[in-house]
Amino acid sequence: MAERLRPLYLVIDESDSVESTGWVEVMNNSFPELHANIASDPLVSDTVRLGLVAFSESAEELMTLSNLADVVALPSLQARRGRKLAPVFELLEEVIKRDVEDFGPNHKVGRPQVFLVISGEPDDSDVWRPAFDQLMDKRNRFRPDIVVLGLNDSCEEIVRQVGTIGAFCLTPGMSLLDAFGSLGEILSVYSWGFDSLSGSSSFRLVVPPNNSDGGVGIAVPVVGSAKTEIGSAESTNQGGHVTTEY
Fold first, then answer.
1. Quick one: pLDDT at residue 91?
2. 0.90 surpassed by pTM
3. Which of 47, 108, 198, 231 could disulfide-link 221, Cβ–Cβ 3.0 to 4.6 Å?
4. How many CB atoms lie within 10 A of CB 81?
5. Which H/E stretch holds residue 54?
6. Strand 241-243 to strand 203-205: parallel, antiparallel, or no bridges (unpaired)?
């Protein structure tokens, strides 16, 4: 029987604007808990493979897709200048294709999931779209599902444009520490369905517009037993788990 694997890429904004909010520190302090939660749960560690990408002026793969049971410690984030998304989507296209192909025929791989955290509008607002469209092209069998979390209301528009199965902003007045004091909620969202995030008082669902070309699905969390189409990929929700297989 083929081994089932679920690739998850955390893509984190390292731009210097998040340094003053304490976000980088919150994330770094949360990494040990996330690591321990996944590595100590065999039901999760046996299936979830986690990769870490950080971005500012450029995008960098801080950790390749890994079984956290085999990882000593997660790398730390560091605030840097700039916030560009085109390098993020270009890097994701490269690493997702590499990772899925590396799994080989003995694995049944769920559609890759990207959880993107961003603190504001990108500096490359006029050029990121082509890289995004190429990553999400219906002809690209490696295209991921993307959930976006905006750290403030100023990034609502970019959250709306990029999120394909989930788009959220922090609730006004909610501090980063209160809202996301640990990354355990990310793990919960990924493992048990994005409806767990939409039900949180810390986050406000931002529904993207319908896409007439059908290339990207609308970001509405699914609850209960349902079957939806996201782009040309079929996703089945089973007890809160959304799984899309190649």
1. 98
2. no
3. 198
4. 11
5. strand 48-55
6. unpaired
Cβ atoms of 60 and 52 closer than 8 Å:
no
For 134-152, give the DSSP string. HHT-TT-TTPPEEEEEESS
pLDDT (tens digit per residue) in 180-218:
654 555 555 555 455 556 556 666 777 655 443 433 333
Query: What does the pLDDT look like over 73-132, one tens digit per residue?
Result: 889 999 888 999 999 999 999 999 999 999 878 888 889 999 999 988 999 998 999 999
Rounded Cα distance, 5 and 222, in Å: 21
At 157, phi and psi to the nearest 5?
-65, -45
Q: For residue 29, what are its two tokens?
A: 């302090």
How far apart are alpha carbons 171 and 193 in whole angstroms? 20
Angstrom distance (rounded) from CA 156 to CA 150: 7
Contact 221, 205 (CB under 8 A): yes
